[in-house]
Design brief:
It is built from seven helices and no strands. By secondary structure, the chain is mostly helical. Pfam families: TRAM_LAG1_CLN8.
Length: about 180
């Protein structure tokens, strides 16, 4: 679902002008499927991981489920949710990193290469995307109803620091040992 999000912006550049009411065919379904994925992953973590190991991801998933759920239910802000899905492109490399760690392949070229790509995609698809979304929300506050603006602002206020902290942890773990 994550690569489909970036493809939608390429094929439908009008999305960058109206993230509230405009969305291409299939975008609503893509966001709805993403809600399902986050719900399933949330339940899986609750059932199979200790809370002290997964509380950050559970919190992250809760915020995403609420924000995306609003977009799905209202058929509004689907474009904004598509932008948010760009963040998940980096998840490919975060998950590959975890797999390589579990396989004890930390001292391999593959791990080192993935670390570099992970860091690059992290900056582009997480930090830059979240900064753009925050800027968009601020610049368009007069066009967004107060309740939706509050949810978006709180969501961004939670996600941005979480991603900065994770970025610091990745830098410390993979580059400043």
């Amino acid at each position: 679902t994550h690569n489909l999000s970036s493809c939608r912006f390429y094929l439908h550049p009008e999305l960058s002008n109206d993230l509230v009411g405009t969305h291409p065919p299939g975008a609503h379904s893509l966001v709805a499927v993403s809600v399902g994925y986050f719900l399933e992953d949330f339940v899986d973590m609750l059932c199979n991981q200790k809370l002290h190991q997964s509380w950050e991801l559970l919190f992250h998933h809760s915020v995403v489920i609420v924000c995306f759920g609003i977009a799905v239910l209202l058929h509004q802000y689907v474009g904004f949710a598509l932008v948010a899905l760009l963040v998940e492109i980096n998840s490919i490399f975060l998950h590959l990193r975890q797999i390589l760690l579990m396989a004890n392949l930390v001292h391999t070229t593959c791990y080192r290469l993935n670390s570099l790509v992970n860091l690059g995609t992290y900056v582009v698809f997480r930090i830059a995307t979240l900064a753009w979304m925050t800027r968009w929300l601020f610049l368009n506050r007069q066009n967004v109803p107060p309740a939706a603006y509050a949810v978006g602002t709180v969501g961004m206020a939670i996600m941005t620091p979480m991603n900065i902290i994770l970025f610091y942890r990745l830098l410390r773990s993979d580059f400043f040992k």
